[in-house]
Fold each of these.
Amino acid sequence: MKAPSFQLKNVGRTFGARVALRQVSIEIPAGQIVALVGPSGAGKSTLIRLLAGVLKPTTGHLLADGKEMTSWSWREMQKHRGSCRIIEQSHLLVSQLSVHQNTISGHLALWPWYKVMAAALWPIEKERVRAVLDSLGIAEHQFRSVSELSGGQMQRVAIARALFSDPRAIFADEPTASLDPNTAKAVTEIILAQAKARGVTLMFCTNLLSAVLPQCDRVIGLRDGELVLDSPASLLSPLALKRLYENSDERQLMATHGTNGTDLE
Ligand code: ADP
Ligand code: MG
């Protein structure tokens, strides 16, 4: 299945009186690796949820593969949602279940009922699950309970759950925010490597930009719901990045921790 392209024309999204995104126009070609940055409350998660089909725009036009998403049938929307996977900071794994069961859990809605029943009773699809876990370096934990794993290992299980469905697009929404710097870097590299190997469209929202920048094609910056930065990764201006975070809480955090100008975690 081909990776999706996206087109936004003056897309806006409000929640009651609160404006989360305003007049965003942007094109994302199929298979592009995009870093998404901006201060907290900028509208990053809202943009991700719109692209993944979890939210609908309030105004404007949102197209996937050239087709207007708002005109899709329920079935077409379900298909799109099933082909997009969001990896978040809170991975919402079921801690009482095994790594194996958590890995297949994201896929249950796409299986017939008898396969879901079988999955509850026996470890089905053992080899496929093992292959995904192996690519993430956690195959030896396949039948351990998730509650016995470290934070970094749990985040790898969340990645395995996303990859098990063979997604066409991956949206990583600050997936490493609760991990220590070394684990965060390792998890970031795994997501980027997997996205590249699979040719999916990837939007990676992070404040740990230095780990993403060498591997991504483009950097998009949002602030107060507006698109204020759109640059090829290789031409990203430190000044533009500095402006993006000016007077934000993250900027103060950056000064406190003395980070190097591209990282805010
Ligand atoms: P970011 O991910 O950049 O931190 P979000 O997209 O989560 O920003 O939020 C953008 C703005 O929209 C914020 O002001 C936030 O409070 C608001 N917002 C997001 N989701 C909701 C929601 N479900 N209900 C109400 N307000 C929301
Ligand atoms: Mg967010």
Amino acid sequence: MARVDLHLHTTFSDGKLTPAELVNLCYRRGLRVISVSDHDSTEGLPEALEAAEELGEMRIIPGVELSTDIPGAEVHLLGYFLDWSSPGLRDTLRRFREGREDRAERMVERLDALGVHLDFERVKEVSGGGAIGRPHIAQVMVEKGYVRYPRDAFDKYLGRGGEAYVERSKMTPRQAIGLILTYGGVPVMAHPTYSSAKSGREGLKDVEGILLDLKRVGLAGVEVYYGDYTPEQVAGLRETADGLGLIPCGGSDYHASGDPGEPEPGSVGPPAWVVEKLEEVRPQGADPPAPSPGRSCP
Ligand code: AMP
Ligand code: MN
Ligand code: MN
Ligand code: MN
């Protein structure tokens, strides 16, 4: 079991545990350094920091996960150590979350035309006011008995190319990296290759080329120790990361999704030195995250 997990979600995006529940679960599982990295939101961080403060000996690295598009594929970027409480950043992320709501409603309309009748109000309710996403639609489909597990909803309807899939306008990876750097964060590419737990999600075609290109605009790391990646995938990605001088990061990408076989927090993670390295390469002149409430650096 790892002691570091740098990729976790809460109810502030598409995770099912509150930040406090997540932090406590991670602690019980032996983790001592975690990043709460919700989609398009840093709003869960105060609660996570407070829960960690109460536990002691539990370090929270502020994080965020941003979705971007390249031709034919989606690239996710994680931002670590960013100035999460900055009003400018929070405003920008709030706008991203608003775009998600519109798209979710259109997907519910598509489903309706396909004979899958969901109440959009219920989808909003299960999203709990956080960043609404396809997993919330999938959850309501499970609730109503249309599918057994959330991932079945992705396979048939919600995945890229699925019958009810609707695009959302997103930034480019360069724009996301720029945004993360502006707020003093360290940009890291998430899950660069195929993950069998997320069946609808294919790997990128030219991972190395894309990484090299993005390194030139400030990408500092890439996920290597990720979710359900096989030992072969991990070894290959580690070689790529080392070859390009990128920090080999990783984590479970835990959502408490209810899908069978979902990687649990700490089931995978990077070596502890990775955290120091990430901290070392923070953009110069960045202010440390606001100390209140809780603390981020014990
Ligand atoms: P969205 O942010 O609305 O585009 O939804 C993407 C989220 O759906 C990801 O962050 C995962 O949590 C989840 N997801 C993506 N693909 C799958 C899949 N094949 N099975 C289950 N969950 C998935
Ligand atoms: Mn997610
Ligand atoms: Mn992702
Ligand atoms: Mn994620």
